[in-house]
Amino acid sequence: MRITIVGGGYVGSALASHWQQQQPPEGQARHWLRVTTTRSERLAELAPLADAVQQLDAADPDQLRAALDQSEAAVLCLAPGGSRQVEADGYEATYLRSMEAVAAVVPQLPRLQQLVYTSSCSVYGAATGLVDETTPPQPLEPHARILREAEERLLACRSPRRRVAILRLGAIYGPGRDLEPRFRSLAGSRRAGIGASLISWIHRDDVVAALAWAVEQGFDGLINLVDDEPISVRELIDRSCQAAGLQPVIWEGDAGPAAEPAPPRRLSNRRLRELGLQLQHPRLPILSAPLSPETGPLPPA
Questions:
Q1: DSSP string spanning 51-84?
Q2: pTM over 0.85
Q3: Residue 92 has what DSSP assignment?
Q4: For residue 76, which of 88, 66, 84, 68 has the smallest C-alpha distance?
Q5: Which of 90, 186, 193, 196 could staple 80 via S-S, CB 3.0–4.6 A?
Q6: Which domains does the chain show, CATH number per domain?
Q7: For residue 301, is pLDDT > 50?
Q8: Percent of residues, the chain, with pLDDT higher than 70
């Protein structure tokens, strides 16, 4: 199969490496891969992972058409760069404009039969209770609304001859993105509330496996790509500080009547399991370490 990975960053480069190292079944050829990047300095780094590497602004229809030409499948692993990581304008430029470009060029690409896109569970926003793929998105933050609009642009590309798969990811961790260093700066600080809201995580290896599966199975539809056990903000921070031997965070809601309500939302990965996908990392490693008596886990939602 001829595949273009649009976005050779943290996930896209790992997916390319997976396919490059994979031994195809007897009698079948290895996938032909093109990987794109926005940065010229990464072209040489990505070259060993693909048959072709291309510098690309995915929001430019002409560049995108050239990158997808002759491809049978495209995996869209986009991420805003630099200081635009949490800014709505960065999300609009990266996701929405790129999906508009995809929608503009796919009618000119008859060989392109599969689009697979990494979105985010943040599109569920205000949804409450147990949230699965049938739950209507209710994005709250500006960047989440943009991500939902980007999904809609891509879904409009679906046709009897073209499948669209959207994987809504939890927070990603993995090699080079360890959890503990992210929270060490909070040691000894005071935090409002009790940290009861839940975060669902997913390891990069499981993202890669799910993307490869979606392409090779020709999957069409939505999947919540999260692990089996969400963790509260409080437990995550407390465990991270404890593992590093640092002072615990002081949760100010513990002492007052205005404590946060019970976590209102829990993401379900039931469909993932029903499809036969087995997670290599079903829970965060940090959950295997016992908490000290002072930082016991919150009751289940």
A1: SEEEE--TT-HHHHHHHHTT-SEEEE-----GGG
A2: yes
A3: I
A4: 68
A5: 90
A6: 2-172+202-225 (3.40.50.720)
A7: no
A8: 90
